[in-house]
Design goal:
3-stranded antiparallel beta sheet, 141 residues, mainly alpha, elongated, 62% helix, 6 helices, single chain, Arc Repressor Mutant, subunit A
């Protein structure tokens, strides 16, 4: 599965069934890119297109129930792991963790916006030279 497909599935998981236009707008990509990605997800049986029950003119895209169940399970496991780690921190350590996590999330989001468009090849993604390798960061901890 490509990063674009994972990104779309995460967006669908967070926002529920959406039209192709809503997906394109929410992900900041073209409708043709969304169509191509949804086609691939349907082939993998990870997403489905279906008519809106309230407006039969609208075609919605959803995660399949099987993929959604996996996402719920993984999210639940991740929350449990995170909770277990956080309860072991002092209040000061907890504040430092939250600050670091926010900075990391901002940096990751910024990098993804620059490098993970639906049309972008990950092999051309850029990593700033000022970013330490994980081995260098781990060695300092």
């Amino acid at each position: 599965m490509t990063l674009s497909q994972v990104r779309m599935l995460l967006y669908l998981f967070q926002n529920g069934p959406l039209t192709m236009g809503e997906l394109a707008h929410g992900l900041g990509v073209s409708c043709s890119a969304v169509t191509e990605c949804v086609d691939s997800l349907e082939e993998r049986r990870a997403a489905i297109r279906h008519r809106s029950e309230t407006d039969r003119r609208l075609v919605l895209v959803s995660m399949t129930p099987e993929v959604e169940a996996v996402a719920v399970q993984v999210l639940g496991q991740w929350k449990a792991v995170l909770h277990h780690a956080l309860v072991q921190l002092s209040p000061e350590e907890g504040q430092a963790f939250v600050k670091g996590a926010r900075l990391l999330a901002q940096a990751a989001e910024s990098w993804m916006e620059r490098n993970l468009s639906f049309e972008h090849d990950l092999s051309r993604a850029s990593v700033p030279s000022s970013v330490d390798s994980s081995a260098n960061v781990a060695a300092r901890v």
